[in-house]
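pls ignore typos typing on phone
zinc ion + seq
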Amino acid sequence: MSLPVTAKVPFGGDYNPEQWPEDVWKQDHRLFDSARIDLVTLGVFDWALTQPAEDVYDFSLLDRIVERAAAEGRGICLATGTGAHPAWLATAYPEVTRTDFEGRKRRFGQRHNSCPSSPVYRRLSVELARRVARRYADTPAVVAWHVGNEYGGACYCELCAAGFRVWLRNRYGTLDDLNAAWYTTFWSHTFTDWDQIEPPSALTEHWRGPDHTAFQGITLDYLRFSSDAMLTNFHDEKAAIRESSPTLPVTTNFMGMYRPIDYHRWAAHLDFASWDNYPPDDESAARMALTHDLMRGLKGGQPFWLMEQSPGVTACRDVNPLKRPGLMRLWSWQAVAHGADAVLFFQLRASRGASEKYHGAVIGHAGRSDTRVFREVAELGAELDRLGSASLGARTPARVALLFDWDSWWALEISDGPSRLVRYQEVVLAYHRALWDAGVDLDVVAVTADLSGYDVVVAPALHMLKGDLPQRLEDVAARGGSVLTTYLSGRVDENDQAFLMDVPGPLGQLMGVRVDEWDARGPEVVNPVRLGDGAGQVDVEARLLFELVIPQGAQVVGTYQADFYAGTPAVTRNSFGDGDGWYVAAGLDQEGVSWVVRQVLARHDVLGPYPDVADLESAVRVAPDGSRLLFLLNHRADPVEVTARRGGVDLLTGDRTVTGSTVRLPAYGVVVLKEDW
Ligand code: GLA
Ligand code: ZN
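k done
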């Protein structure tokens, strides 16, 4: 089971006509036609509509919505509608609402407020999914199932506590093993009965705030459990869908780098990945690229769907800036460049009331087509029509991998010491930024991924080492590849216990170093680091964390310039087999990170075509027929000119480019070059 079968990149998004009178639907569809919208996502929050009482299911309105969309020739991504439970359910069964970390029982309201462990929620959500699938499985317009919506958050109720104990029994088998894994001899935390185990909570002092804990084992496992509990919800709905729809692809919309859910553990259960892209600002091009790559990496490089993005503004932030003219288009093409095989919006028509009435939409409250946003959407629709099937199923030919690991993220950030200021995402973003600037096509993969096809593996803040990963990283270097890792890597095993050996633990051989001590300082403290030597020497700054490194065979590439460890190594390179291991022991600034990354890449022919043109992004996809698509994305507000490395046809304009000619990209411009071979 993989991606939905479509003839081109589906274009459209969330559509909620149950919110407005039927006579508006006709107008909606005429506007969809003019914007070339060919896919609608229906019913995402329809539970109260489709099941108005426990023993009453009523699909009459959804039937009309589905029939209308199908009659208009649109594909349908059909939701099970379980992202928000109805009021009658919360009243009849108070267990379905969540309990928060402070121990407060939530009342009805909001969405994503269902306890994942509630037997009633599980039974009724699964039954709804079953009925939705049974009713619409034979509707040819339905191309995919959309389960729930943006799974996330956590619940700390008694039902979850019981579920947690079951989960722990499955994981550890015996209390002895659990006590050993959690290191409970410390502070007399030893458990002698499973029922003594409580979820982390403000009431038990297990957790002294949302980001750190006094009881690492329990907090880490509760994160794992919560992610798994919601995965079970997804899985159960999917199984109910499968009873009547054996082959139609099933997904749920992810949220990118979202800490509470370990998407790598979910990935195998989805037929295809999809995600909702709401960048925090318009400076986040690299971050979006990373997130797209992370989503593509979930299914081994299989394309994903961009399930949601705003055509204009969002509504949930304190301040909601407008996407500047051209940005929606540019970012849509960026998604395609990184593997999106669908470009969808939230939402097609604006809600008139409630909390998202000011959220951007393709069609605003006035129902006009002569708005800037509608025009830009329609132009993009026309471009995607021109692209046709050219990019469908295309893969990224990456030879560089960036490791991303939720366990490391959690373990690093719940840890007391060395520094609460070191944030996993920020470390990853800095290393990714360096690769992105260099135009490198890369995969963002789980630590369990097959690394044998990569020349370079970058593993920032790889705090936790699991399974045979150290061996597989050594294998990369042994056959001539490069492995880069940083401070706070190789610290703990999968139970979050320190290795009884020198830091960086099982990475020590590969890195050829041992870390003797570490110094964490506030953001105002800078230790200058001198990188390289001779003419290539540069001075950069390091902050937050400074590990004191004693080389064990590694050569010194950069040194601290201040404090009692001035002159000692901050960056090292170790020859290992035919390749090398690079260790960055301090929180280098972006210039420093980029310098090191360029050194690592220098031995490998992996740079993009324009590695020195700032904010001109390049990405390659190779289509199933072997054709190579080069995406050029100008993230600058001014034009840029480059020389074509290879001739080809711009699929958006039909213009031919010959090798050596000038390619001009206007501000926020996009070129999709099908290269000649
Ligand atoms: C999320 C949800 C949508 C909507 C948008 C608004 O992605 O899935 O229902 O609330 O945010 O940005
Ligand atoms: Zn619960």
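The chain has four domains: 11-84+122-152+226-387, 158-221, 400-602, 616-675. The mean pLDDT is 97. more later
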